[in-house]
Every structure is written in structure tokens, then in C-alpha cells.
User: What shape does this take?
Amino acid sequence: MPNIHIVSSGDCIASIAESAGFFWETIWLDGANAEIRQTRKDPNQLVPGDKVSIPDMREKHESVPTDSTHRFVRRGVPSKLRLRLLQEGEPVANQPFRADIDGAMSRGTTDADGVLEIEIPGTALRGTLYVGPEADLLVYKLDLGQLEPVSTIKGVKQRLKNMGFDVGVLDDEVSEEFKLALMQFQAEQNLESDGSLNDATKLNLEKVFGR
Assistant: This one.
């Protein structure tokens, strides 16, 4: 019988799948998870308390001749971390970076739009990102799997905070700090600056920050 996994902070489909021994697509596309696909849209953005169905393992049989040596290759599916870095609204472009993700180091260079992409384990939870020359180093602490969907107040606060706005406490309360941050963001995006979390504001937030 399928198991039901209750999502906790830091969970995403990739981490749940890796812990259960599945590819993430197997769980995300399972018919029993149709409702959560419709609700959350993004497998990397779940909310604590969400329920994810984990199907039973299915055996696969291979016919092979006896008295021979056979090689079976286990496919691996690392997750990808993709970030766009901005400083005062401008891309941090063509800069060297190194990322320490749960003790594993990756190196590379941001592209002309300030974007970097690295492969990480599906179960990774913490990391530190170092960007730029040593004399002018930018350091970012990464909490992986913690970003909630833009459909939640906390998810909107997380995105605004990551863009440098003061939103107050990262919770699901609509505080005065949160309203002021929304107004500032709306003004920057040439939207009606009324502090309301309307569809136009959400769409622009996804466009600027990402889903």
C-alpha cells in the first residue's frame, strides 16, 4: 500500500523521493499526487503539512544468460540549484563563485544575467555561496527547500526579503512591515502601490524572483 508522507520544513519532492528510493518524477507524476500538483505547481515548493503519496516499489526483471558477467548501471538524478543574483537591482554578471553544499564544493561563473546553476543532492539542506573576487566577496547563506509557494503570505515574504525588502517576521501574518515592503516592490514594478497582494503583484513577483 502507498505511504503518506507529511511534509515538514525543508522537504521538497526531490528530497522525499531520494529518501524513499525513487526518481522525483515518479512521485510527482503519480496519480495519487494530482491534487498537490494542482495546488503547489512546483515540486520544489511544498508547505509543511502537505501530504505526499509515496507509491509501492515495483520490481523490474531482466532476462540474462547464465555463466556471463553482467553490468547494471544505477541512474542518478541530482537536483539542480538555479539562482539569479542581483546587487542594487543589477545582475551580478560574469563573476566567479564557489558553493559549499552540505560539505560538497562546486565552482563556476555566473552568466551575463547573474544566473548560476549547480547540481546538488536532493536531500541537501544547507549551503554557503561565495561570489566575486576575494577582495570584494559576496557571501550568501542558503536554506535549501525552505521556500514556500507564492500563494502563501510566507512565500511572498521570503521572496521580498531575498530581494532586500524589510518584511518583518517570516510568518503568514499580514503585518505593517509586510504591507510597506509590498508597496515598495509595487512602486519599483510600476504597479498600483496600495500594499495589497493582488494577482498583478504576484505575477510580477514570480517574473522578477521566479516561481
